[in-house]
From TrEMBL:
PROSITE patterns: PROKAR_LIPOPROTEIN. It is found in: Cell outer membrane. Residues 26-174 form the Outer membrane protein beta-barrel domain. The lineage of its organism: Bacteria, Pseudomonadati, Pseudomonadota, Betaproteobacteria, Burkholderiales. Keywords: Signal. This is OOP family OmpA-OmpF porin. Pfam families: OMP_b-brl.
């Protein structure tokens, strides 16, 4: 496991532990997810392909059964091949739409802003951009849910707008 992913897992466990020890605050939640990342576009002239380990930690507040605001940090892993190496991590703030299908299942849609830092074998860059995502969530209890999502981050960096995809499965804990 690479250093960035190890840090992400450690932060996730710490955040969930701290959250579980906090007083009850209706609507507040914390979570983390792990999965795979893909860079469909070249980054700084480096062709990227294949999947790498990635994930995110997040926290948010669900204002209504259908709307939440969520912020967090994402790790996109390290992609390497004969043209070079690319690694990236970022921060995000999303508006999350929630469409309950029944008492256990919900569909999720998100639209937000992101800041991504890139480190390539030929330079570093960072930039802001948009983020979108789709997913589903299953409520194990009234406070614990499992989720699966696809998210696309599209920041400006190196004079271009490379796409970064994160496919993840995670846990959300409400307080």
């Amino acid at each position: 496991m690479n250093t960035h992913l190890s840090r992400l897992v450690s932060i996730s466990v710490l955040g969930l532990g701290i959250g579980l020890s906090c007083a009850h605050a209706e609507g507040l939640y914390l979570g983390g997810s792990l999965g795979s990342t893909n860079f469909p576009d070249s980054v700084n002239g480096i062709a990227t392909n294949g999947a790498e380990a990635g994930g995110k930690v997040f926290g948010g507040y669900q204002f209504t059964p259908n709307f939440a605001l969520e912020g967090g940090a994402a790790e996109f892993g390290r992609h390497s091949n004969s043209t070079g190496r690319v690694s990236a991590h970022g921060l995000f703030l999303d508006a999350v739409g929630i469409a309950p299908l029944n008492d256990k299942w919900s569909l999720l849609g998100r639209l937000g802003v992101t800041r991504v830092d890139f480190n390539t074998s030929s330079g570093k860059s960072n930039g802001n951009g948009i983020k979108v995502g789709l997913g589903a969530q299953y409520d194990l209890t009234s406070r614990i849910a499992l989720g699966a999502e696809w998210e696309r981050y599209r920041p400006s960096a190196f004079g271009q707008k490379p796409d970064l995809d994160l496919y993840s499965v995670g846990l959300r804990v409400g307080f």
